[in-house]
Amino acid sequence: MWWHYQFTGDKEYLENRAYPILKEAAKFFAEYLVPDPENPQWLVSGPSNSPETGGLVMAPTMDHQIIRNLLANTAEAALELGVDAGFAEMLLEKRDSIAPNLIGQYGQLQEWLIDNDDPESQHRHVSHLWGLHPGNEIHPLTTPELAEACKLTLSHRGDGGTGWSRAWKINFWARLLDGDHSFLLLRNLMVPSISQDIEMRDRGGLYMNLFDAHPPFQIDGNFGATSGITEMLLQSHLRDENGDYFQDILPALPSALPSGKISGIKGRGAFEFTISWQDGALVSVEVISFQGSKLNLRHQGEVVSKATTKGETYVFHLAEFK
Length: 322
Known about the structure:
This protein has helices spanning 2-8, 11-32, 61-81, 85-97, 144-157, 163-175, 179-189, 219-233, and strands spanning 34-35, 43-44, 48-50, 53-57, 234-235, 246-249, 260-267, 271-278, 281-289, 295-299, 302-306, 313-317. By secondary structure, it is an alpha+beta fold.
């Protein structure tokens, strides 16, 4: 719900629909967190689990990433609306005390607070990389060591899995700015299922109607693939020192897509983009500003910043990024 606000800037939606739900969820998790017995300076969640592996445990990494995100989003929403200042301050204090992402003995991102990962496991779920995608706390430009740990985790798990797992990995590799690996996973996802039977032996792929072939069907494979394609071409989850979003243009363009165009793609800050490229190089970016937010276009490390007016359209070319 917070991300919906980030992309639209709809403050009425934030006030009347999103914030009341965010606030109640944040209240729950603020009380759910407890000090870790071994590291009492850290708050942990539990009892919980890391989905599909590990059983019932305390302190799974995925929990902590999601809760940190929730508490930060709720506090920012309160600030945007000018309400609950004390509550927001408490949430940020809790967020800062949650056990951090840790790098384990193999150089991997730990799935739990205890360094208990199995480098031989190729289980299809990689939930502890939620902070890489769809979260925003791990990225090669901001946390390079954690990003490298995510790469190692992904190399341990491999490129296999049924549709939804492959779709998630498309997004992971795009966030790691490796468009070619991301595209490899896209190709691996978009293969015909062995048969049209809705059984596990099909091992993923697509049915004849292009539905994700996981017993019997999982729409997240389809939606996840679409998300992954957009992440190759536009990312808008990082911010500058003033809190304005970077619009990263073609951050993970695969070499298999040397020329192309995409239109109608949205960025945080309430922008809409049409992006064209030729022979692997950016040609132009057309931007519609729906809220008059500050625009930070970033391409290959170069940034073009511009104040915008609500409803106006702006066009940029490759030469402006040099």
